[in-house]
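For homework, think about our next protein:
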Amino acid sequence: MQEVRTQIEIAASRERVWDVLTDFARYPEWNPVIVSVQGELRPGADIDIKIRQGKLAVPIPCRMHRVELLHDFRWRGPRTRVLGKLLAGEHYFSLEPLRTEAGEERCVFVHGEQFRGAVLPLLWPRMKKQLEKGYSLVNEALKARVEGN
């Protein structure tokens, strides 16, 4: 298994970040990588996401794996077993509350994915750099959206 893990501090409450992060209908307005999420925010729900790769929006059928209100949610994909044996991932978004010394509410957004599959060793060196860059772009865009920048 291989993992990409990124994080960013956001000057807002965990509740505010959660509201933006779970409003899937508005992803096209701010998310530069995950341009579409269709489905319910509940464990076991089938969801369909589209990831921007260059000028293309690549569809990936997933299943919501875990949802813990105001803390995290995870989806696994693809839903098909054959493709999943070749390459599969568990994408996660996690919110950790943080309070400054002045009592200001902040949040640490942790964003990553764990990968497995038969072709992973062949793809990983190139894939890792692209994913780190893409996830960092999502983090920055979420921060700007939540903080109103």
The mean pLDDT is 93.
